[in-house]
Amino acid sequence: MNRLLRSIAKYFLPVLFISYIGCISLFTHTHVVNGVTIVHSHPYNPKAHHGHTTTEFQLIHALSHLTTTEPSVGVLLSAVLFAFSCRLLYPATRFVRTLRQWGAHGLRAPPVSIL
Q1: Which of 33, 31, 74, 28 is nearest to 49 (CA)?
Q2: Could you report the per-residue pLDDT of 45-81, keeping only the tens digit for each?
Q3: How far apart are CA 48 and CA 37, in angstroms?
Q4: What per-residue confidence (pLDDT) applies to 76?
Q5: CB atoms within 10 A of CB 113
Q6: Angle CA 49–52–57, to nearest 5
Q7: Is 36 a residue whose pLDDT tops 80?
Q8: How many Å separate Cα 79 from the centre of its chain?
Q9: Do 28 and 40 touch, CB atoms closer than 8 A?
């Protein structure tokens, strides 16, 4: 089952990503409603006029905006990205070799990095 799921995901996820990027890149358009310009994207016929209901505009707004009361989301995201980039630049094997050179026997917990 796990092997079947991986073989399906191997093709499905790249196709999903490419279709999403294509949709937001190729079908971007604007609507002006009560003096407010709303920019969004979805497949449509550019030659035919189309519109949206008030409920659809509210859904577009809800899906495309993130509102938080504190800046913790941005701080947390930047900390995770920083830690991930440090992990890519400095692999763990480099630190293990350094511990062996210092004579550490490896029976203690690994060191913790506080950002």
Answers
A1: 31
A2: 878 888 888 888 888 878 777 666 666 666 777 777 7
A3: 19
A4: 73
A5: 9
A6: 140
A7: yes
A8: 15
A9: yes
Instruction: Give the residue carrying structure tokens 């190729």.
Output: 26
Going from N- to C-terminal start, the domains of the chain cover 2-64, 70-115
- CA atoms 60, 63, 65, 69: torsion sign: positive
DSSP letters of the chain? -HHHHHHHHHHHHHHHHHHHHHHHHHSEEEEEETTEEEEEE----TTS-----HHHHHHHHHHH----SSTHHHHHHHHHHHHHHHHHHS-HHHHHHHHHHHT--S-SPPP----
Alpha-carbon separation of residue 59 from 28, 31, 63, 65 (angstroms):
17, 14, 6, 10
The residue type found at 91 is P
Closest C-alpha to 84, from 113, 62, 61, 63: 113
Contact (Cβ atoms closer than 8 angstroms) between residue 28 and residue 19: no
